[in-house]
Automatic annotation (TrEMBL):
Keywords, in A-Z order: Lipoprotein
Any one biological process term the GO annotation gives: response to toxic substance
Record's protein name: Entericidin A lipoprotein
PROSITE patterns for this protein: PROKAR_LIPOPROTEIN
Origin organism lineage: Bacteria, Pseudomonadati, Pseudomonadota, Gammaproteobacteria, Moraxellales
Species assigned in the record: Psychrobacter aquaticus CMS 56
Gene Ontology, cellular component aspect: membrane
Length: 46
């Protein structure tokens, strides 16, 4: 019984971690897109 509980908790933490890192990657990507857009606007004004 203990093995089943430990396996379930481990799977839960692994899956939650994957979703967290996926969200973090999307946030970083969004920030990079914003910086790129701003840099292009500045370059167009020059």
């Amino acid at each position: 019984m203990k093995k089943v509980i430990i396996a379930s908790l481990t799977a839960m933490f692994v899956l939650t971690g994957c979703n967290t890192f996926k969200g973090l990657g999307q946030d970083v990507s969004g920030a990079g897109d914003a910086v790129t857009g701003t840099a292009q606007e500045v370059q167009n004004k020059i």
